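Input chain follows. Return structure tokens only.
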Amino acid sequence: MTAVELGIPRISGAHAEPSAPRPDDPALIDTFGRVATDLRVSLTDKCNLRCTYCMPAEGLEWTPDERVLSDDELVRLMRIAVEMLGITDIRLTGGEPLLRPGLEDLVARITALRPRPRLSMTTNGIGFGKRAKAFADAGLDRINVSLDSVDPETFQRITRRDRLRHVLAGLAAAREAGLDPVKINAVLMRGVNEQEATSLLRFAVEHGYHLRFIEQMPLDAQHGWNRTDMITAEEILDLLGTEFTLTPSPARRGGAPAERWLVDGGPAEVGVIASVTRPFCAACERTRLTADGSIRSCLFSTDETDLRGLLRRGGSDDEIADVWRTTMWGKLAGHEINQAGFAQPIRPMSSIGG
């Protein structure tokens, strides 16, 4: 299989403090001409699973509650993003966002913003089954559920929890509540679950879910990521090709992270997010807000900008917006995973937000 390589903008020496003056533009632009319109908001770093590629069995030291943004603070920042910075899409992430108290009410407040942002959530799905209708009624548009195996034993081996039935119930409830599309995010690991690539796709096609395979990234709390353990995009496509015929989707990719393929001629599709081997940094449209109020211009940033302090000191909307714009103006060309000297972020994925 071959695919278009979006890659990293080929500009050497790009640093977080570009010398070029920022133009008078309200949008979240950077020096490479990219415009961030997609905001990823982490609601908590807590999680009720212990996935081996994310955190140790004993879990992590969670962020103290007083450092986590309140609902009012979150809504204010999202309002600034929507009204002043051109954000059109918001994704709620974690940790596990369903662990945030009163989340349905927060969803309703977000979807009441004008212009109304498209709102999605990435979750492990545990507990979503009983709450799906309430989330749909509150305005949630779609959902991504993390699911690396449909085999109970493998699922428990990866997550260290016997909760597969609850995840499957959450998926079914999301579809029943009318959320569309219902997506599945899956990570394949060598010697663990790569043999399940076809069974995962078969399950997704049979139930009408949209499956996305994601290359394992160096964002684990243990800093134990090893490139040789990662199943690459090419390997994923080869594994799927043993049972399915895949052809490139004619749909425009834009800034979407997934390369999409028609399954047996369609209409079912499968996506592959090749963050490591086929980086798509040149088309990135994302900006990130951590649960404790920091802005990150990239998932792999080694620095971030604190907004919580500015908020709590009484900063104005204009001041907050300007700081946000400055942070994104300094966005690097790409994540540089494949470059010598790459440094994994100190924060793990559970703390950054997916």
